[in-house]
Amino acid sequence: MMKQVLRALLPPALLALILGSVFILPRHEALVESSISPELPVGFTLPGWYGKKVQESELERSSLAADTRFSKAQYNQPRRTLWAEEKPPVEVSIVYSGSDMNSSIHRPERCLPSQGHIDLQTGNSEITLADGRTIAFTRLTSRVPLPDRDDGLTLRFVSYYVFIGHGTMHHTHLGRTFQDMFDRVTKGYVQRWAYLQVNSYWAPELNLTEEETDRRVRAVISKLLPGQVDWSEM
Questions:
Q1: 219, part of any domain
Q2: How many other CB atoms are found less than 10 A from the CB of residue 83?
Q3: Do 82 and 50 meet the contact criterion of CB atoms below 8 Å apart?
Q4: Residue 13 forms part of a structural domain
Q5: pLDDT for 123-144, tens place per residue?
Q6: How far apart are CA 90 and CA 92, in angstroms?
Q7: Structural domain tally of the chain?
Q8: Could you report how far apart the first and last alpha carbons of the chain are, in Å?
């Protein structure tokens, strides 16, 4: 008889416990900001590189929520001689989520095909920053054919990306999603995530290789992130 009573009382007791936990979990009213600054360095403030701010494209703005924020810049190494050929810039893009994170940032594998990228290949890679920290990134390669050119040039892209929240970094969309859920439940705050992507392109016709382009992209990341992220929050 006692077992039957306990069995009948257990489900409503568990439900009451779960619902009651809402009142004891931590709660924050304001949106907690990402720990990466949108103020990308320009001029020669990034050692060995010259940077300039650039505007996001209309396609980028229209494909994401209206309250999504962007910060973009391009970096190149000064030419050593006047006749030296300038290499393609390394582009840094930071996209900050708005009130609806799912419509503000997402995996680039989802949006790059609409921008003409094909043959996307992904993998994991670690980059050691100039200050000694080692950060995990997703490395992405893709191709963009240029059909309007007579020579049939195809640009080959090397990209690295990572998601940066208030106090954590994740190089996968799934990892970021679980972290966001965990922080909402256990810490009681909604955070603004930032999606950081750094990329450049190469082609044999441009006298560039994938290895050289990869080194240039990793070099910008290594020098940029130590001063761009508030590491005290990490």
A1: yes
A2: 6
A3: no
A4: no
A5: 999 999 999 999 999 999 999 9
A6: 7
A7: 1
A8: 54
Neighbouring-strand partners of residue 91: 74, 199
Q: pLDDT for 186-220, tens place per residue?
A: 888 888 899 999 999 999 988 999 999 999 999 99
Q: How many C-beta neighbours within 10 Å does residue 185 have?
A: 12
Angstrom distance (rounded) from CA 41 to CA 50: 9
More confident residue, 104 or 56: 56
**Distance of alpha carbon 192 from alpha carbon 40, whole angstroms:** 18
- Asked if the structure places residue 173 within a domain, the reply is yes
The first and second tokens of residue 167, run together, are 């106090």
Give the residue among 232, 216, 213 at the shortest CA–CA distance from 224.
Answer: 216
Query: Distance (Å, rounded) from C-alpha 94 to C-alpha 196?
Result: 5
Show the tokens assigned to 99: 């009130």
The domain in which residue 118 lies consists of 39-233
Measured between alpha carbons, how far is 9 from 195 in angstroms, rounded to an integer?
Answer: 47
SS3 annotation, 67-133: CCEEEEEEEECCCCCCCCCCCCCEEEEEEECCCCHHHCCCCHHHHHHHHCCEEEEEEEEEEECCCCC
| 188 vs 84, higher pLDDT | 188
pTM: 0.83
In a domain, 95, yes or no: yes
Instruction: Please give the structure tokens belonging to residue 111.
Output: 């949006």
Cβ contact 199:221 at 8 Å: no
Q: Is the pLDDT of residue 26 over 90?
A: no
